[in-house]
Specification:
Length: 96
């Protein structure tokens, strides 16, 4: 069996306009833990559906319990202010 690359380890959020739920498939371990915790706390709103042989998990969650947040990019002024603050207080930027 070959291992999946990071590129192949997808997170897929799928729904249609008729359904009242989202299907979420993910290999992301942190997201899987968060979903499993949510399943345990709120079984009426979220269910674990399946796991594949490579470690991917599928969950079904009510549409009202999952949101997508879009964030605008920082302005040049905000980046400059943040950089100055970080330099002043010893926080270093790490490039990926």
């Amino acid at each position: 069996m070959t291992r999946l690359t990071k590129y192949e380890k997808e997170t897929i959020i799928l729904t249609n306009e008729e359904d009242d739920f989202w299907n979420v498939f993910t290999y992301n371990k942190g997201l899987q833990r968060r979903f499993m915790s949510f399943v345990e706390q709120y079984p009426e709103n979220c269910q674990f559906k399946s796991q594949n042989n490579e470690g991917g998990m599928t969950f079904e969650i009510d549409k009202g319990r999952l949101s997508v947040r879009l964030t605008a990019p920082y302005s040049e002024e905000r980046r400059k202010t943040s950089s100055e603050y970080a330099k002043k207080y010893g926080v270093h930027h790490i490039k990926k």
